[in-house]
Structures
1.
Amino acid sequence: MEILIVTSLAWIQAPMYKYSGSKLAATVSQQGALGCLGLEPVKRMEESIKYIKNITNNPFAVNLWIKPNLPQNISPEPITNKLKEYRKELGIELNPEPILYNFDIKDHLELVLKYKVPVVIFTYGIPDQNIIKKLKGNGTVLIGSATTVKECILLENAGLDAIIVQSAEAGGHRTSCILPEYGLIGLSTFLPLAKRSVKIPIIAAGGIVNANGIKAALQMGADGVSMGTLFLTAEECNTPKSHRKVIFESTAETGSICSRVFTGRPASAIPNRYYKEMVDICKTLPGGEESIPWEMPGRDIFGEAARKGNTDLYILWGGQSVGLLGGIPTRSAAEIIKGLEIEMK
Ligand SMILES: Cc1cc2nc3c(=O)[nH]c(=O)nc-3n(C[C@H](O)[C@H](O)[C@H](O)COP(=O)(O)O)c2cc1C
């Protein structure tokens, strides 16, 4: 299994965009699991790669996004008006945001080649054959992301080395490689179906926050696991303080929900005021949630809400197992991994 060849533990700290920066990835890799740097602008990513290489000689991964081909629907007026209200409440002007996907990963790929990055995790798409050939020829292990069996088969046929199967329990965006199509399948069904359908190694992602979760996934045939929500609680993760507090104070009743109202793309987070109000507006729209633009212009609102510690208007990212993290103390990523190793025995 490729992952076992590159790391001593078949555990991946899941890619989590701005949350999983170089400090988190370096600490995790230093502990023998696979730390993954979230997607960053190319200059920052170069600094991060140098930082990680400076901290550890162990393998690490970077996450690269393939620009998905999303429908370009316009925001319905009630949604735009609500976003205006939120901006007013937070005291910010409409801040025209750069389109999140408006970049070319050509420069990122040059970095991966130049620094011989050991592992790349691709999200939201399937890299083309030129990219696959170039990176593999340079010794990089390539992992794809899937939310359905159909996607697993497409990734295997394209020549990826392994697949992260993201189940319905997972926090964050649906990492489908054929967006706007995506799946929401529970791990105990998705994992055996994926194992039956493809030959390459399968890494389980979704709802795994402790040793029992890891053992269950391995028992069901996973070749490794990828954990996101658990690492949101790590000291080295860029999780805002107020968000962390919500996770630490979560109870058996706290869960996450998958919806397009957070960012326009299907994603799972803990429901809050923003979620509830947006869902209520969608109920009044003829197309319901389907009327939301796939790239909803609300990131300035979430950024300001995070700065103000306002958890009503911030996206409280997390998966369905967030309730299992209530009451745990703040720990470093190294302590989290050591804790898992002890629990696994
Ligand atoms: C805050 C957050 C941000 C995420 N960002 C990304 C991302 O940029 N790329 C990606 O492939 N997956 C992303 N994900 C999904 C994770 O890689 C992973 O599939 C998920 O966290 C696994 O489920 P869990 O949260 O229950 O452990 C994100 C997840 C979270 C919680």
2.
Amino acid sequence: VTDGNVNLLYRQRLNRYFAERGAEIAIHVMPPGESQKSMESLVNIFDAIERFGIRRYSDPIFAIGGGVVTDTVGCAAHLYRRGTPHIRIPTTLVGLVDAGIGVKVGVNFRNHKNLIGSYQPPMISVMDRKFLATLPLRHVRNGMAEIIKIAIVCDSSLFDILESAMDELLDERLQTDLGFRVIDHSITAMLEQIRINPWEHELRRPADFGHTFSPRIEMDSNGSLLHGESVAIDMALCCGIALRRGLLDDVSASRIVDVLISAGLPLCHKLSTPPRLCRALEDTMSHRDGWQHIFLPTAIGRGVFVEDISVDDIEESLRWVCELCDTGGLK
Ligand SMILES: NC(=O)c1ccc[n+]([C@@H]2O[C@H](COP(=O)([O-])OP(=O)(O)OC[C@H]3O[C@@H](n4cnc5c(N)ncnc54)[C@H](O)[C@@H]3O)[C@@H](O)[C@H]2O)c1
């Protein structure tokens, strides 16, 4: 299973790869885009599997694409015959450092992100950063948001690299040795977060930094904001809250904001209004069993969870973020 863009770019090479290994395959192509992370796409995948016919354990489903493809296929694989093996080949930066390596799979439902889903580890994830060579720059920046996130929550040395070499990493689409180190650091840090809490019995997840307000903003943007862009807006807002509460110092807040700006990520958006952000928090609290469990950074690589974010916190931080957007950063 792949999407229309990846199919156009890589169809011939995929056909050749499987043919050289004597594998009989059928390719199901989903239209690209977040709107395709849907129940309908699951049904289309089930139909394609039925037409082709697969054996229970020895014929895996390949998910070849970005997070939309790997999340949707993983969900279909979880449901089909109560579990069919799947192999992920992430082709975006979000896929390489996050969606392609985790255990969470799912689709959106009734304008709620990832509402229907499960935990379904892949048999294998094949990480090949050469795919990034054809990825549009906006999507490279988008993936950078998840790398910045993991650096802020638990890897200050990764943050140092991002701070010193963002332009080079973006220009070279992470194809250099430094790009390899960044992806490697990022995957290692993310896998460690998953290893200690794979089934999310603990709902205080540092890796959820940037994922409190962002799901609502992303869904309400109807595709105009990408996943990582919404996460960046959420991270900036949470930094503002941490700063206001005296949890984060000016220098660290400034470093975080500067890295987000250097990656070309947004800090705010017209959809970030206090009522929408409050609604977003309510949605997320039901997902977190009634708790806020909001991760706020206290330094680069460290943070705490808080449970008492108020409307005032949100409004004041929004003002701070809006001023930054006007001035282009803290400097
Ligand atoms: N399961 C998880 O743990 C997890 C983690 C992070 C994100 N996600 C999900 O991942 C999704 C976002 O993933 P994404 O950013 O990869 O989006 P995406 O799958 O929509 O891919 C982005 C765009 O890039 C195109 N594309 C893919 N590979 C390409 C390539 N090599 N060259 C050129 N174009 C290419 C796609 O067709 C698409 O248009 C969101 O739905 C998000 O919720 C899931």
